[in-house]
Amino acid sequence: MKNASLKLLYGEAFRPPNFQEMFTTNQPAIEGNKDLDPETIRTYEVGLSYQFNKHVTSSVNYFYNDIEDLIVLRTAESANEPARFENFGDAHVQGVEMETRVDITKDNYVFMNYTFQNPEDNHGNDLPSVAQHKGNFGMNVHYWKYINTNLSTFVSGTRSRKDDNPRDDLPAYALLNLSIIAKEFFKTMEVQGTVFNLLDKDYSDPGPMAIPDDLPRPGRTFFVGLSYQF
Q: Entry's SUPFAM superfamilies (predicted)?
């Protein structure tokens, strides 16, 4: 099938413990652990993509991630002792990714992708703070040879809490991002301007009980870049 392609992927990676996880001291609530091992991950993926015609291309991937030596903050058994970072158990994440791109004219297209993932620990329990559903959709418009505009929306599903956290799950949210690239107006120079969280959405990442309002994420953020190829 000349319009189809199959891929099989395998990868390995690791994350060493950071400075806070290893060396936090003189803190009544949290204690570092200099004996931590790195987190490790093995990834397996199989994917199929198909070009239906000159305009539409779609793909679907199945992935499985095997994570070992997760670094977590363990609550102490005694209220008089600080919580401590430890390597605690393993995790397994499997899921499906789907993507479609529709080319309208050269460099003008719409795109969408969706991911479902099911993260579990080594006892089969769902992992907290991880969204099972997430996706992107948007469009790329090259209306002038010097200017390219990309508008995209990132959507995240709800995220659950730890078992000992009685608060409600964090709600789903969506972020709108806009990027404008100016190129070919002066030799190989390229100027890019990006606005992340264009609508200044107020959202947070899960935080411990000691932080009632969780961990706030950035509001509207601007980025400007300049590149020149010699």
A: Porins (SSF56935)
